[in-house]
Amino acid sequence: MASENIYILGIESSCDDTAAAVMCNGKILSNVVASQKIHEEYGGVVPELASRAHQQNIVPVVHQALKQAGVAKEQLHAIAFTRGPGLMGSLLVGTSFAKSLAYGLNIPLIDVNHMQGHILAHFIEEDGFKKPPFPFLAMTISGGHTQIVKVINHFDMEVIGETIDDAVGEAYDKSGKILGLGYPAGPEIDRRAQLGNPKAFTFSKPKVKGLDFSFSGLKTAILYFIQREVKKNPDFISENLNDICASIQYTIIGILIDKLKLATKQTGISHIAIGGGVSANSGIRKALKDGESKFGWTTYIPKFEFTTDNAAMIAIVGHLKYLNNDFADADVMASARLKI
Ligand code: KG4
Ligand code: ZN
């Protein structure tokens, strides 16, 4: 039988990005993301507003993804959508849209775990990016997640560490709020960190056993430190902003690298793949590179557009599941706390 082109539409709506992507045989033809600006003025994602914005965006975003790919909806082989984890009101929009479209086109529906999407984004066919070999460790770091996963193969994964409170991106964003920076503050803290002294101020690292993380104590420590210093000098923040950012970044990266060191030691696996919005961070990128020479790691970071929330990563999971004939039932439901 002649090998056939497999076209998959991916749909992602788990948090505040409405996204759709079209994939052919593991290669991305289009990757459209509508980010919701509305949350900036609230300093964080407001679930009810996110759900409403998804409803407004989903039809135009899917339409644009098909148009950019030059693929008619009748050519699609399956529709992959994010089932969870995420905000229920947001997930419901993508789930019900994907269901009705698959039903209308009479093609299979494929449910995708968002966290597996972040990990399998490394398997999108993309020139210049190498795929990690099995087994590898995947660290997903973003505004919503902080997780280390042992990946045995595409569909056999084990979470070996995760945050017990805030995600690492939240630690950046909440620190930024204390410093009066805009939301999300991660990129700004990163930019300033590169201009400051990372040893100017010391914040103690949380003592969490094993491979789990905690970031809420760090946020409180930063808050008390700033309050104390501002009492002594009202201009403390503006006079020391770059050094404060560098010190925060140094602490956060130290926490992540300590856990990776422990994870590689415990598992004996030295291939490390990272994903999520925080993988754009210059500090983590440098620390991973250093880890290659210092600890013998091999590290993998996907193309930037596949690290933040996107539908290309949902489409690649869809593609892999399609090859396995692993389809969802018509009565599949969104699941806010879906586990890997
Ligand atoms: O993956 P993402 O776009 O969305 C989700 O949270 O799911 O990640 C956004 C998070 C925000 O918390 C943002 O502050 C953080 O990633 N971020 C960064 C950087 N770029 C984005 N944090 C530190 N350094 C960066 N360069
Ligand atoms: Zn995500």
In short:
With 340 residues, the protein is of the alpha/beta class. The protein contains nine helices and ten strands.
What does this structure look like?
The mean pLDDT is 96. Helix 8 (282-295) links the parallel strand 9 and strand 10. Helix 4 runs parallel beside helix 6 (216-232). This protein has 9 helices and 10 strands. The longest helix has 32 residues, at 236-267. It is an alpha/beta fold and 340 residues long. The strands form 2 sheets. It has a 5-stranded mixed sheet, with helices on both faces. Bound molecules: 5'-O-[(R)-(carboxyoxy)(hydroxy)phosphoryl]adenosine and zinc ion.
Enumerate the strands of the largest sheet in spatial order, edge to edge or round the barrel.
3-2-1-4-5
- Give the names of the bound compounds: 5'-O-[(R)-(carboxyoxy)(hydroxy)phosphoryl]adenosine, zinc ion
Low-confidence segments: none
Shape: globular
